[in-house]
Amino acid sequence: MEASAKLTFARLSPRKTRLVVDMVRGKGIQDALTILRFSPQASAKLVSKLLRSAVANAEQKGASDVDRLYVKSISVDGGPVLKRFVPRAMGRASKIRKPTSHITVVLADKQ
Question: What are the record keywords, sorted?
Answer without folding.
Answer: Ribonucleoprotein, Ribosomal protein, RNA-binding, rRNA-binding
